[in-house]
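Budget justification note: compute hours in this period were largely spent on complex prediction jobs such as the one shown. Inputs:
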Amino acid sequence: MIRVILILLFFLTQTNKAFSLIEVDITRGNLDPLPIAVSPLHVDPNSKTGSNIKVKELGEKISEIVEKNFKSTGLFNPLKKDAFVQKPDIAHLKPRFEDWRLIKAQALVTGKLLIKDEKLKIEFRLWDLTASKEMIALAFTTTPSNWRRVAHIISDKIYERLTGEEGYFDTRIIYVSEEGPKNNRIKKLAIMDQDGAKTKYLTLGNELVLTPRFNPTNQLVTYLSYFRNLPRVYLLDIETGVQEVVGNFPGMTFAPRFSPDGKKIIMSFAKDGNSDIYTMDLETRVVERITEDTSIDTSPSYSPDGKYICFNSDRSGLQQIYVMKSDGSDVKRITFGKGLYGTPVWSPRGDLIAFTKVRKGRFYIGVMRADGTGERLLTENYYQEAPSWSPNGRVLIFYRETKSNSKGEGHSAKLWSIDITGYNERKIKTETDASDPSWSSLLSK
Amino acid sequence: MIKSLIYSISFHVLIILLTILSLPFMLREPIDLPPIVSVELIEITDKTSIPFAPKARKVIEKVKEEEKRVVSEQAPPSLKEKEKLDRIPMPDENKEKQKRVEKKQNPEEVKPEIRQSSEFEKKEIIDTNQIAALIDKAKEEQALTKKDSSKVTQSSVKNSFATGLTLSQEDALRAQIFGCWSVPLGLPYDENLLVRIKLKLKKDGTILKSEILDHERMNTPGQKFYKILAESALRAIRICQPLKVPPTGYEKWKEMQLNFDPTEMIKG
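Corresponding output:
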């Protein structure tokens, strides 16, 4: 009896509690960048180096690179160092959280470095200032000349800890460098870090080059170049500089791209006004025809799992985007909007396809889901195309050309990046004019 | 026989007693919001960070004018009544006052609709609808919105049932947290990422204790996005404190649950 009463009493009081707890749904927040303080790295006074790296400045330089990386994402707001209230060495041991909160910082990065026996040792910590606790602490050892890469790796780790996504700072971008007047452009393959530093030219500019693409390990590049006035797909080893023609096709090959496992190259082969999609196995050199249609099929791109291919084709009369299985079966049209669709690229996350759209003489870069729904146009301009994904599928890089005047002056081509939300459109600094960018995967992976 | 009858009667009496003591609607009087709330609505809307505040003000002013007109159609209240309206009346007083007002109104002139509700209730209803309409309008422009406005209604229904926060108080609190919460934009939009945080508050709105209700998800492998979101929500609460809580009714809101749902932000 008592037990029954107790049970009843329990349930009734629980009901009362459930009635009285106030619930408030928070469905919106702000898009303001997170205020973050990046303290200069403390340089250990015992540091010695035989090379020509200025050790004393290194701590500041590394923190500057981290800051620049954060700023470029649009998601973080690095605070000015003038307002910092604690010395780097003390802050790295344990920050006075309340002091840092005073300058409205929500996160703090501290670190220290030591160069000894020609080895650079860097450690850093990320602090959550509102919770007054450490979020991540890591240390790296490398050769001193690699300090820029360490700065990028630190940026990646912090970005991942704060956003939940992999970073994209320790990456490179390959592009076509352009110089000279519009009717006599010299085009060279160039490679640089994603922040525009350390540009290297891979070709001399004697031949026209187009559409370079990295393989998954970032060691090989496939691109289009002209051999005896015939466009052909080439393969270049970045380390050794060795290049070769891909396959022995009796005609023009173009729009190459690697498969996600890096074992195949997929490309278009044109003959007699008809172009179809082919793959070539890099080990066996076996060529396989994927599409057989009388129309122009081009710009193929694999899904990250390698099971599907998206491409553009004019088989319906106008250029639209299609998706098929990787063996060429089950072709489905996924775009039905007004205008022409081209250069589809599957996101490394697999959820979206980026594309270029042309409508009423304007060029758009957009994204849509892999089934063609949810189309979003991110940016519009006079001429822009060739989107390429950052390795985390968060940012797109593309190139944009400006209109030249009647004398052919004022023409320029520059690289731009945009977040998939449509925010944070940024011009990327390059030494020369630039087009056809391709983003590498993470180098440290 | 008698024994079991006694058992039965005592058991029934106990159940009835427990029901009366425990179930809130048995004790609570029908919701009769005090007049001060309508004033609050206007003030707080001015303070909220709804991006369409100027528009909201216009509409509210328009509504005010309409109200004035409606009021002027009625028999003008005496000076004494006005004085009474300025202070917070006790529930009993309020009832008496309503009776008095009803007596003084001229039945021939007053429309049946007006007679059914008190002057204050009418204001409340009009303001609420106008603000809800504004919220809807703002959302339409963002192309995201029916869902959100229905959510607002849901939680307000929940809360009015619990008689904890009024719509305007909840709106003020929500607007405050909107401003503090930096939503991590890297979150995937196809996952269930609702973070529920239970708060224990001091009278001044500062936080005594915050507890994540699904805490085990924080350290589950493969739930890193949940962790990131929960951390951002905790940051928002800490930055925001003291929270904008009502000056009265501490017992009702000293414990509160905040549900952080970033779905619409991420999809947008």
